[in-house]
Structures are given as C-alpha cells and as structure tokens.
Design goal:
Blueprint (H helix, E strand, L loop, with lengths): L2 H12 L4 E6 L7 H16 L4 E6 L7 H10 L4 E4 L1 H4 L17 H24 L1 E6 L3 E7 L14 E3 L4 H9 L3 E3 L6 H7 L4 E5 H6 L8 E10 L2 E5 H6 L2 H13 L1 H20 L3 E3 L3 H7 L1 H11 L4 H6 L5
Helix pairs in contact: 2-10, 2-11
C-alpha cells in the first residue's frame, strides 16, 4: 500500500460516523412538532456539523404518545416531540388543560418567558426522568362537529365530543353540557361519520390532516385550551453526549423558541385558511365560555396553588 493510500485509510478511520438521533412524534408531518424537530435538527447541524444524523419519525411510526414517552424514559429512543401525553406525568401539569387560560399566542409567550417554561421544565425532568430540550407549541384547540355552530355554551348541550387530555379538560366539557367521549384519534373520522360522536376537539392542523371537514361541517374557534409541545431527550442519550454536545443541544433547544412559535403560527394560519374553504368556521362568545368554566380554574388552584398561575395572571396584558 502506498503512503498516500495508507494516510487516506488512517484518515478515514479517524473520522467518526455520525451518531443517529431519532426524533419521534405521535402527530403527522403537517404538525408544528414536525416543523420544530426539523428546525432543531438543522440548527444542531450548523453548530455541530457532521456529528449527528437526525431521523424524524412522525405520525406515530414508533408508537403513540404513551409508548413514546415510556420508551424515552427507558432510554430506548433518543428524542421525542409530543404534547398532551406529557401532562399526564403529574397532575400539577394539568394547568395546560385549564380552559381559556391564555388570551392569545402572545400571552403564552409572555407567560413562558416570565418563568412558566422554566418551572414546567423542571417539574417534567423531576417527575419524568427525562431531559426537556425545548417547550414550544402544539396549538390552541377548537371544536368541530356535525350538528351546529358552537357560539355560546348552550350550543354544546347534549353533544358527544371526542376529547383528549386530563380530568380538567374533561370537566370543562361536562360543565358546558357536553358528553366527553374517549375515542382513539385515528378512529375519530369514522366515529364522526357514523354518529358515535357528534364532534371533536383538537388543534386546527389535526382537523385538516384527518380531513374531518369531509364529515363534520361546523368548526368553531373556541380556543378553549392551549397545548404546548415538548421536545425531550432520554437521560441515557444525554449522558452519552460530550460536555460540548450537551451544551449545544440545550442551548439550541432554547434559542429556536421564538422561531418555533413563529412556525406554529404560520402553520395554523395556513391550515385555517384551508378549513375555511371546506367547512363553516365561526368565532364564539369567549366571555360567556370563560364565565361558565370559572369553577374549573378555581378547583385547580385549590389543589395545586398558584405557582404556575401567577405567571399567567401577571402577563395577561402586554407591558
């Protein structure tokens, strides 16, 4: 072997193969979570070129939310980006199931920046045994149904609504006269079509990707719940990184926050425009809904105090 060939061989052996990092999600490639994961991967490549190969698995390819979280905790997957399932780690995180907690996306961002994100991040890491890389947005949730426009609380009376989330979200719809139904997300279209449920609540992209507008004519912009998305890594994967890599991963997770929110807003605007072309979309009497569900927020505060709520209350109006 020539000296040149030998040197080339040595050089090739010295170059480490990139580490494969899977980022899995339960929602589709149309979701904010997928866009956020792409953004994160691109920024890591800029900071640590050639060191990692990111492979994204949307649409529940590697399991539903519950399975993804369990596998992350077990260290059998490197990263996930999921939403409501994280809230089930601890009842205190049920704050994100409270109705009309935030006035709009700008309010969310103010509350998170004021300390809510750090408090929630610390709680998830404590009770979940995972590393929280970033907290972004899954979106405000609305209601679609086959019967009528929802404009006031009375319009929900008697409707069977497919609902995800914890007990506080269930309580919201019960207080408004609806009957919460537990139906797998993938079966919601058929359930709407056959009358098993009259409606469903979800983020706009969820209705759009599942084509619920084909079987449910009325979409009401209730914005009743805001759900974050959580980009997380397993402790095992975090421990496998070098100190520099750990630093970069955590820095990038925070640095892309503004861009992640902007991406989510752009996606919602796009999908809402599509929905308006396919279904009847209406606004609602928010004050009436807020008044009808005050008791749910009061019950949360009685049980878990105002540690999280104080960030929401203090940032309700822009400075």
């Amino acid at each position: 072997m020539s000296v040149a060939a030998f040197a080339a061989c040595l050089g090739g052996n010295a170059m480490a193969e990139p580490v494969v990092v899977r980022i899995a999600s339960h929602v589709s490639a149309l979701s904010p979570e997928h866009a956020q994961s792409q953004l994160f991967a691109a920024e890591i490549e800029k900071r640590l070129p050639g060191q990692f190969e990111f492979q994204l698995f949307p649409s529940g390819q590697l399991g539903n939310e519950k399975a993804l979280l369990a596998n992350l905790q077990a260290g059998s997957i490197e990263m996930v980006n999921i939403a409501s399932g994280v809230l089930k780690l601890d009842k205190k995180l049920g704050i994100f199931d409270l109705p009309w907690l935030f006035t709009d996306r700008a309010h969310v961002r103010r509350a998170m920046a004021a300390g809510l994100e750090d408090a929630v991040r610390a709680r998830i890491e404590e009770v979940g045994g995972v590393k929280v890389v970033g907290i972004y947005e899954n979106g405000f949730r609305h209601v679609i149904n086959t019967k009528r426009p929802i404009r006031t609380p009375a319009d929900l009376e008697g409707l069977k609504i497919r609902i995800s989330g914890g007990k506080f979200r269930q309580a919201v719809f019960k207080d408004l006269g609806a009957t919460p139904q537990s139906v797998p997300w993938g079966e919601t279209f058929t359930s709407l079509q056959t009358g098993v449920v009259d409606g469903a609540e979800a983020a706009t992209y969820g209705f759009y990707e599942q084509k619920h507008y084909e079987v449910a004519k009325y979409m009401s912009l209730t914005s009743h719940v805001y759900t974050p998305s959580f980009l997380m890594m397993s402790n095992a994967f975090y421990d496998s990184l070098s100190p520099e890599q750990r630093k970069v991963f955590m820095e990038v997770g925070r640095q892309i926050t503004d861009a992640a929110y902007d991406l989510s807003a752009q996606l919602e605007e796009r999908y809402l425009a599509e929905m308006k072309a396919k279904a009847e979309v209406n606004t609602v009497d928010l004050a009436a809904f807020q008044a009808a569900t005050e008791g749910v927020r009061a019950k949360y505060e009685e049980s878990f105090g105002d540690e999280y709520l104080k960030f929401v209350k203090s940032t309700r109006t822009a400075p």
